[in-house]
Specification:
326 residues; mainly beta; Jelly Rolls; 26 strands
Amino acid sequence: MPAVTADTLTLPRVAAPDPATATPRPVRSVTTAPSGYEGEGFPVRRAFAGIPQSLLDPFIHMDQMGEVEYAPGEPKGTPWHPHRGFETVTYIIDGVFEHQDSAGGGGTITDGDTQWMTAGSGLLHIEKPPEHLVVSGGLFHGVQLWVNLPRAHKFHAPRYQDIRGRQSALLASADGGTLLRVIAGDLDGHPGPGVTFTPITMVHATLSPGARLDLPWNPGFNALAYVLAGHGTAGPGRRPVAKGQLAVFGAGGSLTLDAAPTQPHAEPNLEVLLLGGQPIREPVVHYGPFVMNTRAEIHQAMEDYRAGRLGVVPAARLPHTGPGKE
């Protein structure tokens, strides 16, 4: 799991929260993501399955894509499809993925890169492995997160952000036992590169075996921890968590995670995606690729898509903005 690595001894440290002012958040629930298939048939884990929307707000949906080792000819993506009313965040940990949308956004992302697409008023897009990966096969692992847009921004013009892995803010825990990659939002005064309509924080944490992570967390945000690899515990009550599980935290001002002293050989560290955001607290009507506030808006989105008002499939080839080609 390369993503972006660094020596934690040389990085800025995140101060440990003050226990007198930052109450540790208890774990409300731990759920196991069911497996399924997306697009043309690539395997996913549905990270938020079974979680009430009120606890996820402002997040809507998240898939862990892979981790899968494709044989030659096996890599798959998605065909052209529409979106309206939210943002898609695609974070690639291993492998390569290409994106193109009808608003002119697109590029190639690989280890540690993120594509942040604001669908807003609506567009068409496609995601797929590059042809060379289809031919050769190889490892593929990533996450796609859907972030809701508040009513005031649901019809904002589409926007695309190409975030290179090296742009993430790299930090270390207070004791140096955890590498923190801040992709969006703010962690202890250190901002990530992602620009968001709804205030959120998105962090990929790598805990060394036996390490404890105590993080300050915005008390006005919700808090979710999804385990990408390894196993350990979450919260002051040390609830067991393992790969493919989501911990939902209750109220408080800090998060606690502990990595088990011994990890699987193939997964030497506890890898966790930490998410938090300011709840929007508006009605959510989610139907397929559309996330709106009312059923009437969903019907309008479907009508606009059928009428071609969400864009047309461009004839141009994918622009390539991979490493060294920004």
